[in-house]
Amino acid sequence: MANDKFQISNFKSAVCLVSGGMDSCVTAAIAKAENDEIAFLHISYGQRTERRELKAFNDIADFYNVEKRLAVSIEYLAKIGGSSLTDKSIEVSEADLESKEIPTSYVPFRNANMLAIATSWAEVLPANSIYIGAVSEDSSGYPDCRPEFYAAFEQTIEVGTKPETNIKIITPIIELPKAEIVAKGLELNAPLHLSWSCYKSEDLACGKCDSCALRLRGFTLAGAVDPIKYES
Question: What is the per-residue pLDDT across 146-205, written as a single tens digit (0 to 9) for each?
């Protein structure tokens, strides 16, 4: 009986990956608007600000009255290391928005690990799609934020799931610069004040890491004021 609604061809359901950051907050707003049923997934991986990000996830889920929510940990990525987000011996570098190099904050193949979990949950629910707030045009240049990565992973889902499973990966903001992401969030009344983007701090945002700098520039170019508090 519970799955009867999924036989209706126009019924849309989705799993949305919600880190708690601004991009995922705006993506959550889009997913909520585009689907009849939504489930929120949060994945911690031993990052410096995991407690603050989990709070942001729950605050955003509460804002949208999301009943289906799942928070899991893949702390083995911290044990593997290789990123300043998970290895405290590697300094979180200050932002250089003109750099074309992959920054120290890149967590090796993180998004593939996350998508695998999202796929498992989406197949069980079942859900038609997975939303993820990846950004390629105006981001730090992470290789697992490129459109071709998501196209390839969608093919992996098709091959690696049951024949009747049909799950699409949706990346609604992947080609948007940060200013347009901010504008989209404001248009949808996304709870940007509940989101958290800082890589370093769980109290006041540092304002200096890549994530903070991109966020602040986005708000400035959008002609808006960032509602979260930063270190003076």
Answer: 999 999 999 999 999 999 999 999 999 999 999 999 999 999 999 999 999 999 999 999
Answer whether 92's CB lies under 8 Å from 200's CB. Answer: yes
3-state secondary structure 50-95: HHHHHHHHHHHHHHCCCCEEEEEECCHHHHHCCCCCCCCCCCCCEC
pTM, rounded to two decimals: 0.93
R_g of the chain, CA atoms, integer Å: 17
Structure tokens at 156: 């992996």
Place of tokens 């955003």: 60
Among 171, 175, 100, 111, CA closest to 140 = 100
Q: Are 107 and 80 in contact (CB under 8 A)?
A: no
10 burial type by CB count under 10 A (0-12 exposed, 13-18 middle, 19+ buried): exposed
Tell me the backbone φ, ψ of residue 203, rounded to 5 degrees: -110, -80
Report the amino acid identity of residue 177.
P
From start to end of 9-164, where are the E strands?
13-17, 37-44, 68-73, 129-131
Domains of the chain: 4-221 (3.40.50.620)
Q: Would you say 60 and 191 are in contact if contact means Cβ atoms under 8 Å apart?
A: yes
